[in-house]
Amino acid sequence: MLLFEFIGKANWDFLWFRFYIFLFMDWKEEIENYTEYLKLQRGLSNNSVKAYINDLDKLEAYLVSIDRNIGPDEVTLSDLRGLTEYLTTKNVGVRSQVRIISGIKSFFRYLMIEERIEKDPTEQLKVPKIARKLPEVLSVGEIEQLLNSIDVKSSDGLRNKAIISTLYSSGVRVSELVNLKISNLAFNVGYMKVEGKGSKERIVPINKQTMQEVSQYIETKRKEVDIKPEAEDYVFVNKLGTQLSRIMIFNIIKKAARDAGITKNISPHTLRHSFATHLVNGGANLRSVQEMLGHESIVTTEIYTHVNAQYLKETIEKHPGIKDKNK
């Protein structure tokens, strides 16, 4: 079905016959060997291997469609450029194009390693650039709206406010929040220990307001729940006394946004982005922000300097003097 969607709907019987013959040329054996290489030497999962082979299916289908019945050793840079142009005409997204080209490059690198070809046709093939999308952020005022929209007198209100406050004031990931443990809270010194990606632990500062909200929740509403033994050390639990799930956190934030009248499409990560952006806007050292967010590379953190620049640009464009000049 993927092949059919890729080429189009015309002349299927003819093209399928041509493609069938094509598979039993040099491609079939090379792809079988490549599959074994991906599984055994690179240790990839079945799904990952399937994705790589699907990328090659697209190249083969394209070559058949332009009447190029050639083996892998005959593929040229011109053929590959033609494929990228074809993908663009078929409205294949940039990210999907990058994925396909990456898979094709991997195949030809394998052929070079195995000395099955003398020259890699993908060596000079340019990969489309993916525009770096700036994350959605909330203003300080919108954060206040979000928190103020929660009725702390409701059954889950105190917990939900503590959750949102923790996400925003510490910048932790949603996975780090659901796994946050009471034994890792050091509110007497204003810090908590979180476990990030790759089981890496880091110490994160937390403000007094959030500490008070979390403490109040633990000391009151949490005690009203029959906590299951396996969830006793988790800070945030559900009504059944078990650990909160990621999807529940998403739902809590979505509801709070609706109640606050915020129309932006927000998620737990929006609060993390807002935390970092507001720190950078306030003049925080980028290296310190990196450490608080748990980023391995400073390059990842640098996106918030772009968010800051975009924010300043939008602010300037809203300046009354600028508006008057544009009339």
Report on the architecture of this protein:
The protein is 58% helix and 4% strand. It is mainly alpha-helical. A 3-stranded antiparallel beta sheet has the order 1-2-3. β1 (185-186) and β2 (191-195) form a beta hairpin. α7 (140-148) crosses α11. The protein is elongated. 26% of the residues are buried.
What's the topology here?
Elements: H1 2-7, H2 12-23, H3 26-41, H4 46-65, H5 77-89, H6 94-113, H7 140-148, H8 157-170, H9 174-178, E1 185-186, E2 191-195, E3 201-205, H10 208-219, H11 246-260, H12 268-281, H13 286-293, H14 298-301, H15 303-317, H16 320-326
Antiparallel strand pairs: 1-2, 2-3
Helix pairs in contact: 2-4, 3-4, 4-6, 7-11, 8-10, 8-12, 12-15
Taking pLDDT < 50 over at least 5 consecutive residues as the criterion, the unreliable ranges are 9-25, 311-327
Distance between the termini: 54 Å
Helical proportion? 55-70%
What does the main sheet amount to? 3 strands, antiparallel
Kindly estimate the percentage of residues that lie in beta strands according to DSSP.
under 5%
How many DSSP helices? Answer: 16
Radius of gyration: 27 Å
Overall 3D shape: elongated
Topology, number of strands: 3
Q: Which structural category fits the helices and strands?
A: mainly alpha
Mean pLDDT: 82
**Elements, N to C (H/E):** HHHHHHHHHEEEHHHHHHH
Strand line-up in the sheet with most strands = 1-2-3
